[in-house]
Amino acid sequence: xxxxxxxxxxxxxxxxxxxxxxxxxxxxxxxxxxxxxxxxxxxxxxxxxxxxxxxxxxxxxxxxxxxxxxxxxxxxxxxxxxxxxxxxxxxxxxxxxxxxxxxxxxxxxxxxxxxxxxxxxxxxxxxxxxxxxxxxxxxxxxxxxxxxxxxxxxxxxxxxxxxxxxxxxxxxxxxxxxxxxxxxxxxxxxxxxxxxxxxxxxxxxxxxxxxxxxxxxxxxxxxxxxxxxxxxxxxxxxxxxxxxxxxxxxxxxxxxxxxxxxxxxxxxxxxxxxxxxxxxxxxxxxxxxxxxxxxxxxxxxxxxxxxxxxxxxxxxxxxxxxxxxxxxxxxxxxxxxxxxxxxxxxxxxxxxxxxxxxxxxxxxxxxxxxxxxxxxx
Length: 377
Known about the structure:
The structure is a single chain. By secondary structure, the chain is an alpha/beta fold. Helix content is 41%, strand content 21%. It has helices at 29-42, 67-80, 100-107, 123-129, 135-148, 165-176, 195-201, 210-226, 245-251, 278-286, 299-312, 319-326, 328-343, 364-371; strands spanning 3-8, 52-59, 83-93, 113-119, 151-158, 182-187, 230-233, 236-238, 256-259, 264-266, 270-274, 292-296, 317-318, 347-350, 353-356. The strands form three sheets. Strands 7-8-6-5-4-3-2-1-9 form a nine-stranded mixed β-sheet, sandwiched between helices. A three-stranded antiparallel β-sheet has the order 10-11-12, with no helix packed on it. A three-stranded antiparallel β-sheet has the order 13-15-14. Strand 1, helix 1 (29-42) and strand 2 form a beta-alpha-beta unit. The chain starts with a strand and ends in a 6-residue tail after the last helix.
């Protein structure tokens, strides 16, 4: 077992680009915390022979919770599961929640990693995205957080309409000035039914440009690698020993339990996910019923997932593992499908590992989907 993910489905306000499950009403917060604690206890049998290495508070905005709420949920994990001596315990946080007092409280309550949603250090970007914080809060919270936490990650978004290469470089340089050991960075994407999609349709905001995003991506990779970061996953960069253990477990196919509405779980054979409705989630848990749907992965599903995660990461796709786990027929299929990408310089094989090249990295999701198979029969 690798970890426990706890989804906190509350935010102060809705970011224009976000399609995650959350509510801006805190009316049901206390009921939700009790339901999360109950689900943690209800699912302990799933990890009977496992050890928990990571606890991750995601969302939503976990930093909206009180220290008592966070402590209660961590204690519940310790009460019901075997936890390693020094687990990675991460709380996602927004800069506007991170006062010095709050940061000290978090550091005193087993939390040893912060993931801070900066997104940009520029005021106009933050307003366009409808972030709850401003650029001063972005800088101030990092100055304070680095006094109390060694293990900090920050998020940055690139490919924002109208963002020049120079402005993007300034964002990266500003992030580096705080000596943060981990950076996650994502291209701005237009998700269905978000405010961003509406604004683009109305012509209020320009549509993100793929070529600009690709340029920003290459600037990001080059700058961070020059500064000693390991580009270990498409969107993630860490100094040595600072990769996210929680996120790495997903890409390496480890087991995890997802707690809370909309949270996903994986037990090595099946995937399951909780209902994405706060009221129905709470009611179900109060009845001691897990509100989840599950599906057993087929051999093809497992193969496709391995291709997708492998090509996104530094670890690549082991051709030996494809042969031993899935069989010669799958290996033949992969060799055939991947050849044109090798010829185009987008993929390469090194020590029997299929990887994306520097040129192919930004395109890896599209390449992976071309290597998927539906059914070999």
